[in-house]
Write a structure and sequence with these properties.
The chain is an alpha+beta fold and about 550 residues long. It has ten helices and 28 strands. Strands 20, 23, 24, 25, 26, 27 and 28 form a seven-stranded mixed β-sheet that branches. It has a five-stranded antiparallel β-sheet with strand order 1-2-9-7-4, with no helix packed on it. A four-stranded antiparallel β-sheet has the order 6-5-3-8, with no helix packed on it. Strand 18, helix 2 and strand 19 form a beta-alpha-beta unit. Helix 6 crosses helix 7 and helix 6 crosses helix 9. The two termini are about 25 Å apart.
Length: about 550
Amino acid sequence: MMFRRALIQPRFFSRTAANLEIVTFPMADIGEGIKEVEVLNWFVKEGDTVEEFQKLCEIQSDKAMAEITSKYTGKITKIYTEVGDMQQVGSGLVDIDVDGGDAPEAPPAAAPASSAPASSSGGSLETVNMMEIADGISKVEVLQVFVKDGDVVSEGDNLIEIQSDKATAEIPSPFSGTVKNITAVIGEDLKIGGPICQIQAEGSSSSATTTSAPSTTTTTTTSSTATSASTTASKSSGGLFHQSEAGKKVLATPAVRRIAAEKSVDLTKVPATGKGGRVTKEDIINFLEGAAPATTTTTATSSTAPTSTAVKYTPEDRTEKIMGRTKVMVASMTESLKIPSFGAADEINLNELVKIRTMLKPVVEKRGAKLSYMPFFIKAASFALKEYPVVNSTLNSDVTELTYKGAHNIGIAMDTAQGLVVPNIKNVEQKTIFEISQELAGLQERGMSNTLTPADLQGGTFTLSNIGSIGGTYVSPIIMPPQVAIGALGKVVKVPRYNANGEIESQNILYISWTADHRVIDGATMVRFSNVWKSYLETPSKMLLDLA
């Protein structure tokens, strides 16, 4: 199960000349077989004072995402790893001066009389970081910046507007004071925990005159800045953010806005059909196709207009940093290629299953669901796993232990706009085909809307990839460690075949390809497993005998 948790870390002490207690905070083991993790975000910086249980950083492995919290109250004196770097398990994350943790609390009493700059005023220059807005979101895109350097804001005034794959939100200021050093940029990604800006808090020497301004001035400044930011958006972001003259906001994913910018399409004029009023890629395509005739008519009535205003798109090279899910896939697939594996393949006659599904479809539809072939494939795999439990096992990283998994958590590889994801249905051995169908539909919906939860993605014990829904027959699926086997379903095709009586008949043939870890599964075992799976699909009524 993929989850966030506070990690209890061992203590490593050192002493400075001043007899201060410095704790080196190491990266603990967050899961079996994990040797390194990627640092996604830092919530602190060197010099910050932290309290016990305060978040330090967010990390991600190929199995889990976690937030590392401090076990101590003190001052961060050193950070060992930068965002995006790999952190070895057991190596130091930060140094914390435990004895020095209370030091920063003293200066505020003397701050009003001090004429020192903000950087030395004992914390009067506050850094505003991007807060966590939902579980599993590691970054957001900045849509608007409502303020500029020098603006005076009150606590609760909006600083920026952001969008993730789950929500659009406005981020308010937690302080009253003067805005300085804005780092959020329209159209660019902002990591959770990353800095938005700094605010010179009220009461320090450099902000004393502006904090006395009336609230109407603050409101006017913020309003005018918002308008300026909106105008700047269309210039600095290359058309990635669009807003109408009336201030209409357009909901669209970054990928859709990129296409709109490339095609020079004003998103405010595109009819939205997506969930929650979002503009989709198909909406842009339909808009372009529908706009072409109108453009031709308009140009034909003007003697000075060009004969065609069609937008010509010239592809350009684009380099993107490998990050997020792609980075995790790179690591897991590279690891998978170290496994000595073998393949097996077969054909399955689905004629009887086609009849059963045709009979049950209207029954399932009356229950408000849809019935595809996939729930049958999944349940048949569970029946076969009961007979050959080694196929449902996991192998540890140093190949010293093989764990036979009791639950059949069968993963389903899905192709989404965000890339390949493999959520899994838990405890398939305990579920009916109808229950599997319901859970599968839920996973598919969350996968397409990019709202899969960590629990959906973790804990898989065996995987099926339905590549046939796109096309293709035989493929070579790649094992997802620590699992030891995977199956790839080709498309179902109707072909002539000889039946048991030697007669040619039309058969609905499914092509199946298996890949297994040859260190723990031999070829005969995998083929026998495949034969059991095949028998349940070619004679689906057998499932009635073994349903729990």
